[in-house]
Amino acid sequence: MNTYKDILGVITIVIAIISYSDYFFSIFRGSTIPRTISWLIWGVLGTIAFVVQYNAGGGAGTWITGFTAVMCFLVAGTSFVKCSEHFTLYDWVPLSGAVVTLLFWFLTNNALVAIVLIIITHTLGFIPTMHNAYKNPDEETAMTFMLNGLKFSIAIIALDSYTLTTWLYPLVIVVLNAILVFVIIARRISLRKTRAIS
Fold first, then answer.
1. In whole angstroms, what is the distance from residue 103 CA to residue 11 CA?
2. Count of alpha carbons within 13 angstroms of residue 29, beta-carbon side
3. Is 31 helix (H, G, I), strand (E, B) or coil?
4. 112, 168 in Cβ contact below 8 A?
5. 158: Cβ contacts below 8 Å, ≥ 6 apart
6. Whole-prediction pTM value?
């Protein structure tokens, strides 16, 4: 047992609890309207990624992947019940990719290929949320995604084993969250300037 890595693993969970608490409060206040499909996709893919990372010896660095998968399912369920939305092609294409990835994972034993498929599908799963953040930046919570990037950055350090199957997925999550935070903040600034001019 590596105490240092375990402490980092616990820190990632604490960051996640803070982040998701704020996100859920924001949903119930009506200031955040998450894309149900995105969160469902992230839950499915996160579950697969957790199992693959854990089996590859990722240790405490994988804890946050599993915890995040559970929280993604909870956000998806909350969003489905609380927020009325219509589903578009932006939603169905990445969801189909998540299902294909899940089937592939069940039918093969290739962890690296599974991780690569998870990353591709996870990136596609960001499309509905990225689209929503661009059109309606005030409906997304930048802090949640900022903390999400932070917790996965720490999780990479907390990994017990460094292989493509353990570190590639969290690294991509960090990058995607950073891009999303940038889009949210940049669009809010742009829209405020536009409103001020008009």
1. 33
2. 12
3. coil
4. no
5. 5, 6, 8, 9, 12, 59, 60, 61, 63
6. 0.83
